[in-house]
Specification:
With about 375 residues, the chain is mainly beta. The protein folds into 2 domains: about 45-135; about 140-365, Beta Barrel (Outer membrane phospholipase (ompla), Chain C), CATH 2.40.230.20. Helices cover about 5% and strands about 65% of the residues. The protein has 1 helix and 21 strands. The protein has one helix spanning about 1-25; strands spanning about 45, 50-60, 65-70, 75-80, 80-95, 100-110, 110-115, 120-125, 130-135, 140-155, 160-170, 175-190, 195-210, 215-225, 230-250, 250-265, 275-290, 295-305, 315-325, 330-340, 355-365. Strands 10-11-12-13-14-15-16-17-18-19-20-21 form a 12-stranded antiparallel beta barrel. Strands 1, 2, 3, 4, 5, 6, 7, 8 and 9 form a 9-stranded antiparallel β-sheet that branches.
Length: about 375
């Protein structure tokens, strides 16, 4: 029995020494960071926290990178939080000296490498102003949205109100194309008699060329407008202007423009001529602020100084919020004001009211 106990003691002692030796060997093994395999189906972003994200590079302006993560959706990152960036397609970058170069993009250790046609170009990261896609047909260059709001009531009188809006924009490091369309319609019916109370259409489009980070030229701007209640059958405006970026980041954009334009207006019915022409001076400002990933704020205002017989001063004002409640679907709450200082009256009728107000709740889809 005693021999058996001694035997167990020595076996246990040897086993414990073996385990201790193994633990000592394991203690000197250090963890090595895995080397990621970069699938060419994605762009890749590494943060200073050593986290990797795969997805799509959308753009970079004013030291803010917009990245569409395959897992987390569209996110904004301060450039100081980016450790490494790799693109799968060519990218256009704008440098501090206003040069624009393109190629397969690698950003690492404060250095930019562009690879194009087997040739590498190298730049310090401090010279980088912006990044956009180099493929002009890629959807990342375009932003578009359509919205629809309707109100239908029935009873002693039937009322139908609806508003349709559409917006599209294409932006590169050197230019911007934008177009907006608004259609507002309202009718009421009583005893089989239908009365149109609101019928307004506005189409506006412009093309901007960026001279530098602050100054841009609105090479051409065109507007087509009609308003039944203001007695305007169709009004054409075309002009050009000089613009200034007060703020120009991915979250905040605030522009001012001023310049001359030409305006031609046809009326439904007036006591004098049924059309009018005028030289105009236009002033506008656009302020867009992404408050959070779910809430956007917009303020858009334009004023035109025209001849007295064309209305003297014409104002268009839009402001409100967009709330994202499902990916790509928004709830929009917008306020519109259209004002003509001296509206033109129809034959044997009083002059229309100068101001038209609308508060609209609609659903929008972004793509």
């Amino acid at each position: 029995m005693i021999r058996f106990l001694f035997f167990l003691f020595f076996i246990t002692l040897g086993f414990s020494r073996h385990i201790h030796a193994q633990s000592n060997d394991m203690s000197i093994i250090t963890w090595q960071k895995p080397t990621p395999v970069f699938s060419q189906s994605f762009d890749w972003l590494k943060l200073t926290s050593d986290e990797w994200l795969k997805g799509d590079i959308i753009s970079m302006y004013d030291d803010e990178l917009e990245f569409d993560s395959d897992e987390f959706g569209v996110k904004f990152f301060d450039w100081e939080d980016v450790s490494e960036l790799r693109s799968r397609f060519d990218q256009k970058i704008r440098l501090a000296d206003d040069r624009i170069v393109q190629g397969f993009l690698i950003v690492k250790d404060g250095h930019i490498t562009l690879i194009s046609g087997g040739t590498e170009q190298h730049f310090p990261l401090t010279d980088l102003l912006s990044i956009t896609s180099a493929a002009d047909t890629r959807k990342e260059l375009w932003d578009a949205k359509v919205s629809f709001g309707a109100d239908l009531s029935q009873g002693n009188s039937n009322q139908l109100n609806y508003l349709f809006t559409a917006e599209v924009q294409r932006r590169t490091p050197v230019n911007r194309l934008r177009a907006d369309f608004i259609f507002n319609y309202s009718e009421s019916s009583d005893n089989d008699v239908t009365n149109v109370t609101v019928n307004t259409r506005r189409f506006n489009a412009y093309f901007d060329w960026f001279y530098n980070a602050e100054i841009f030229f609105r090479a051409v701007e065109y507007e087509n407008y009609s308003d039944l209640q203001q007695n305007i059958k169709v009004r054409h405006s075309i002009g050009t202007s000089l613009g200034y970026h007060v703020v120009n980041t991915k979250r905040i954009e605030w522009d001012f423009t001023i310049g001359p334009s030409y305006q031609s207006t046809q009326y439904h019915a007036v006591a004098a001529a049924e059309s009018d022409e005028s030289v105009a001076l236009s002033f506008s400002t656009l302020f867009e602020y992404q408050i959070s990933s779910k809430i956007d704020y917009t303020l858009d205002y334009k004023m035109e100084f025209v001849s007295d017989k064309s209305g003297a001063r014409i104002h268009h004002f839009k402001t409100g919020f967009e709330f994202e409640f499902i990916k790509d679907l928004d709830i929009d709450l917008l306020f519109y004001l259209d004002r003509i200082a001296k509206p033109v009256a129809a034959i044997e009728q009083e002059a229309p009211e100068p101001n038209d107000y609308r508060l609209v709740l609609s659903v929008g889809y972004q793509f």
